[in-house]
């Protein structure tokens, strides 16, 4: 699996967009980028995933650079309930998910 | 349309007792994964199972820990002779055969060893 690098922590004002970066410079052609989050003491929650095209769903948008070496998860209007640890994982289908330390996002009132 | 069901939610065991954690995957999912999260630490992969088969147990401690996913019934993570260091949150996840849509996680079992 490609190693991913994320900032340890970030703050975001409530109502503003939260942009969470992830570097995956060694990603291979068949590895997808997945994002999960874990709200305090709950099970991880799937957010979104993509291969090379930008993706959007009801929770977030995923922007993947053309060279696929980095991506950004965008929460368009962050709320206090979005405070969580966000994990970026690069993986091929069928492999086990390995969670790194992630980014601790704090949404501030 | 139940998700991944784990029980019990909380489990207290005395040192030396056995702990059994159960996980029922999402309907239609045939792959189960167990993760452990120690207090203030990240999620660590333990084991990956399909029905009646252990596919990858590279994250399982060599002693006292075992897992199964029988043909009928939930997956079981069993910890024998628990010690205080086993106190953690244990999460189960399931996926379809392709894993195309990632994992769906349960709410976890919080094990406390006293």
Give a quick set of tags describing it.
heterodimer; A: 109 residues; mainly beta; five-stranded mixed beta sheet; four-stranded antiparallel beta sheet; 9 strands; B: 114 residues; 11 strands; 0% helix; globular
Walk me through what this model shows.
The complex is a heterodimer of chains A (109) and B (114). Chain A has 109 residues and is mostly beta strands. Chain A has strands spanning 9-13, 18-23, 32-38, 45-50, 55-56, 61-64, 70-75, 84-91, 103-108. Chain A has a 5-stranded mixed beta sheet with strand order 1-9-8-3-4, with no helix packed on it. Chain A has a 4-stranded antiparallel beta sheet with strand order 2-7-6-5, with no helix packed on it. In chain A, strand 6 and strand 7 form a beta hairpin. Chain A starts with 8 loop residues before the first strand and ends with a strand. The mean pLDDT of chain A is 94. Chain B has strands spanning 5-7, 10-13, 19-24, 31-37, 43-50, 53-56, 65-68, 75-79, 88-95, 104-105, 109-113. At the A-B interface, strand 3 and strand 4 of A face strand 5, strand 9 and strand 10 of B.
What would you say about this model in short?
Chain A has 109 residues and is an all-beta fold.
User: Which blocks of ≥5 consecutive residues of chain A have pLDDT under 50?
Assistant: none
Percent range of helical residues of chain B = under 10%
Mean pLDDT across residues of chain A: 94
Low-confidence stretches of chain B: none
Strand count of chain B: 11
What is the end-to-end distance of chain A? 37 Å
Shape of chain B: globular
The secondary-structure element order of chain B is EEEEEEEEEEE
Helix content of chain A: under 10%
The SSE string of chain A, one letter per element, is: EEEEEEEEE
Total DSSP helices of chain B: 0
Strand content of chain B: over 45%
* Largest sheet, strands/sense/barrel of chain B: 7 strands, mixed
């Amino acid at each position: 699996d490609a190693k991913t690098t994320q900032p340890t922590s970030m703050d975001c004002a409530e109502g503003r967009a939260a942009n969470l970066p992830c570097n995956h410079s060694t990603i291979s052609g068949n590895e997808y980028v997945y994002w999960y989050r874990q709200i305090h003491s709950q099970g991880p929650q799937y957010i979104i995933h993509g291969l090379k095209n930008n993706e959007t769903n009801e929770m977030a948008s995923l922007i993947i650079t053309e060279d696929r070496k980095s991506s950004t998860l965008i929460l368009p209007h962050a709320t206090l309930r979005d405070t969580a640890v966000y994990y970026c994982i690069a993986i091929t289908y069928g492999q086990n998910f390995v969670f790194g330390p992630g980014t601790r996002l704090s949404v501030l009132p | 349309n139940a998700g991944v069901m784990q029980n019990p939610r909380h489990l207290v065991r005395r040192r030396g007792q056995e702990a059994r954690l159960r996980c029922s995957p999402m309907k239609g999912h045939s792959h189960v994964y167990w993760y452990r999260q120690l207090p203030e630490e990240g999620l660590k992969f333990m084991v990956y199972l399909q029905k009646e088969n252990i596919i990858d147990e590279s994250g399982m401690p060599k002693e006292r820990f075992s897992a199964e996913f029988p043909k009928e019934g939930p997956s079981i993570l069993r910890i024998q002779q628990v010690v205080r260091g086993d106190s953690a949150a244990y999460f189960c996840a399931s996926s379809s055969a392709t894993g195309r849509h990632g994992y769906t996680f349960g709410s976890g079992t919080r094990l406390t060893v006293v």
